[in-house]
Amino acid sequence: MPTAAKAIAALCLAALAYLASELVKTLLPEIVNFGRFSEYNAAIGAVVGWIIVGKRAGRGTKDAIANGLTGVAGLIFWTLAFHASIEMFRMSMKRRFDGPVEAFSAIFEIAVEYGALLMNPMMIATLLVGALLTGYLSEYAARHWK
User: Fold this and answer.
1) What is the pLDDT of residues 92-108, one digit of tens each?
2) What is the value of pTM for the model shown?
3) Cα-based distances in Å from 93 to 34, 87, 100, 114, 141
4) Residues 144, 59: contact at Cβ < 8 Å?
């Protein structure tokens, strides 16, 4: 059932995902073709915000902070899984793997490699502030717009 808290959480995490994606682009060489990288991440952020953060809003301020942090953790997990799967598919089309098990295990290796890019003080600060704002704003929406 659509609620204001779900909508606010989806918008906040989509905006955070877009902003974080634009920051990641500055960390990589200019040679990389990103395509619709930021838009895909924003879509994932909207879904994660709706499902994870929006559903749990309305339980209090302490829970709002934890809710925002959980939402950002889910956002990071699903975006890494999505992009690592795409990269594994690209590599498998070039016949880089001997079998399906090796290709599947490569998803995790690629995700860890991509996750290492997020270990930047600016990225960590952006994600933490975004998590706090997402949790607080969804909590505010749950309390005031029923």
Assistant:
1) 988 888 888 998 899 99
2) 0.89
3) 19, 10, 12, 20, 46
4) no
SS (H, E, C) the chain: CCCHHHHHHHHHHHHHHHHHHHHHHHHCCCCCCCCCHHHHHHHHHHHHHHHHHHHHCCCCHHHHHHHHHHHHHHHHHHHHHHHHHHHHHHHHHCCCCCCHHHHHHHHHHHHHHHHHCCCCHHHHHHHHHHHHHHHHHHHHHHHHCC
Domain edges within the chain: 4-144
pLDDT tens digits, one per residue of 4-54: 999 999 999 999 999 999 999 888 777 577 788 899 999 999 999 999 998
pLDDT score recorded for residue 129: 96
Copy the structure tokens of residue 125: 């600060």
Identify whether the C-beta of residue 68 lies closer than 8 Å to the C-beta of residue 135.
Answer: yes
Q: How far is residue 116's CA from residue 51's CA, in Å, rounded to a whole number?
A: 26
Cα separations (Å) of 110 from 10, 77, 100?
A: 27, 12, 15
